[in-house]
Amino acid sequence: MAGSRAAAAAGGAAGRGDIDERRHLTRDPDIDAVTALIAEAVAELMLPRFGHLRAEDVRSKASVSDPEDLVTVVDREMEERLTRGLRDLTPSAVVVGEEAVHKTPGLLAYMGGDDPLWLLDPLDGTRNFSRGNADFGVPSVGRFQPLAECGCAAVEYTNVLEARKEFALYYRLLPWDHAAPALILSEGGGCVEHLNGQPYRVRSGDQVTLVARDGRISRRVRGWLGGLAPA
């Protein structure tokens, strides 16, 4: 998987042929199988621990951009289980998980290529989950070939999609948090836009970004926040 691309690059001309062959052999995944994989992992690894984490199950993952970031044993075990399962279901695709990127930031370089790619957030809302707050999302999974996607929406996007709130604002645009739910919201009539009106893309850098139920709401809120738009 992630290592196969590096091996291909090291192989020179032969490696280039390996990558071309991987693209040729890639087929659309069995969405029912992916859904079953996620449901099984949630039932076995996530839900039994909700409200029952021990102190040693939660660790700081502080960074300059998020000094209060956390990781739990559930994040790690979910990512390991789903990474193995996605590799089994789609051997030609690279899996880029949030926790793996925390350890090896260079993995994000795969997003710059055209190879099939899964983006994986093993637990969306770790801080809430660790505190026994039910506002957390099941894993977000996005597949790109090179930019075709499918996945599960997280809590905030679901609230906007189902009109429980009109909009939400974000600044940090980690792809595993936004790529899949942004696609689902857009297909449901909503929009995810930066303050300059440009649509969110999976490779968008961190910036104030509006998640809105429809274009009318997006235009209205962007008007309120116009002073924050970059020059």
What does this structure look like?
The chain folds into two domains: 1-151, 2-Layer Sandwich (Fructose-1,6-Bisphosphatase, Chain A, domain 1), CATH 3.30.540; 153-231, 3-Layer(aba) Sandwich (D-Maltodextrin-Binding Protein, domain 2), CATH 3.40.190.80. 42% of the residues lie in helices and 14% in strands. It has helices at 2-10, 12-25, 31-46, 73-89, 98-103, 126-130, 155-161, 175-187, 215-224, and strands at 58-60, 70-72, 94-97, 117-121, 140-144, 167-170, 191-194, 209-212. The chain is built from nine helices and eight strands. 33% of the residues are buried. The chain is of the alpha+beta class and 231 residues long. α1 runs antiparallel to α2 and α3 (31-46) packs antiparallel against α4 (73-89).
Question: Any descriptors?
Answer:
231 residues, alpha+beta, Fructose-1,6-Bisphosphatase, Chain A, domain 1, D-Maltodextrin-Binding Protein, domain 2, three-stranded mixed sheet, three-stranded antiparallel sheet, 8 strands, 42% helix, disordered N terminus
CATH fold field value of the largest domain: Fructose-1,6-Bisphosphatase, Chain A, domain 1
Query: Between the first and last Cα atoms, what is the distance in angstroms?
Result: 41 Å
CATH superfamily of the largest domain: Fructose-1,6-Bisphosphatase, subunit A, domain 1
- Note the overall shape: globular
Structural class comes to alpha+beta
CATH architecture descriptor text of the largest domain = 2-Layer Sandwich
Number of domains: 2
Number of helices: 9
- What is the average per-residue confidence, as pLDDT, rounded to a whole number? 77
Largest sheet descriptor: 3 strands, mixed
Uncertain spans: 1-26, 146-151
Side-by-side strand order of the widest sheet: 3-4-5
Q: Per DSSP, what share of the residues sits in E-state strands of 2 or more residues? A: 5-15%
Query: Percent range for helical residues?
Result: 40-55%
Q: Any idea what the radius of gyration is?
A: 18 Å
Secondary structure: number of strands? 8
- Succession of helices and strands: HHHEEHEHEHEHEHEEH
The top level CATH class name of the largest domain: Alpha Beta
